[in-house]
Write a structure and sequence with these properties.
The protein has 230 residues and is an alpha/beta fold. The chain is built from ten helices and eight strands. The chain is 49% helix and 15% strand. The strands form two sheets. The chain has a six-stranded mixed β-sheet with strand order 1-5-6-4-3-2. A two-stranded antiparallel sheet has the order 7-8. α4 crosses α6 and α5 crosses α6. The protein binds zinc ion (ZN).
């Protein structure tokens, strides 16, 4: 019961083990060009994602995060309230024991609650920067066991300092993987577009890596050292 309560607070996605059964999941075509018989868990899955542009942008980012290729990752498009994208570990009772790690990235249909900013209409570099940040989170998550991810989520929910550290780390990881221009494009878009609410902008300023830091760390390899080989 306590674990369930913590999990609820932490934003961890608790799922039935057969999450993907009976749902319309479109597997990535990424590996179809190559050899047949790729492992089920070595690809990206899409749920409710219609836009080819979104799928292509996501695959481009995922392709560069080599160490994530051994996990099943599902991109789900659905309404997600006051956020635009979120990365979650999929935790099941079984996975707490067998240790199998799976992840999902939830994306909304538009930028936060601004309906005029439809996600699939955003320029590709902005989408790529956003996905690079979210998969940066997954790169961070994969270092932790499923059980410790529950504790991680709990800390994220209750500790502002931890939240800031984790959000900065996701950007550092994205930059270490060569996405500095796209991460910057996404930040400039969020902070610069007048259709985005001041509340969202101030949240971004409060928790996320500042624009000038993106530039600084792109040129300072030492700062990125801990994030190169995750
Ligand atoms: Zn984030």
């Amino acid at each position: 019961m306590i674990i369930l309560l913590i999990a609820f607070c932490s934003g961890t996605y608790f799922a039935d083990h057969n999450l993907l059964q009976g749902e319309e999941i479109v597997e990535s075509s990424f590996f179809k060009k190559g050899s047949k018989g790729e492992e089920f868990d070595m690809s990206v899955h899409f749920k409710n994602v219609e836009s080819q542009k979104i799928k292509d942008s996501f695959e481009k980012v995922w392709n560069r995060y080599q160490s994530l290729h051994k996990y099943e990752i599902t991109l789900v498009q659905q309404s997600i309230g006051n956020s635009t994208m979120q990365a979650q570990p999929i935790i099941t009772l079984r996975s707490l024991f067998d240790g199998v790690k799976r992840y999902r990235i939830n994306i909304g249909h538009h930028v936060r609650d601004e309906e005029s900013l439809v996600l699939e209409k955003l320029p590709e570099p902005i989408l790529i920067g956003w996905f690079a940040h979210e998969l940066g989170h997954v790169m961070d998550y994969q270092q932790h066991s499923n059980l410790s991810m529950i504790r991680y989520g709990f800390k994220y929910y209750f500790s502002e300092r931890f939240k800031k550290t984790v959000e900065h780390a996701a950007d550092y990881i994205a930059i270490a993987n060569g996405f500095q221009d796209e991460v910057l494009a996404t930040k400039q878009f969020i902070l610069g577009d007048e259709r985005i609410s001041p509340t969202y902008k101030s949240r971004i300023k409060r928790y996320y890596l500042p624009e000038n830091q993106v530039m600084v760390c792109s040129e300072d390899k030492e700062m990125l050292e801990p994030y190169y080989n995750l």
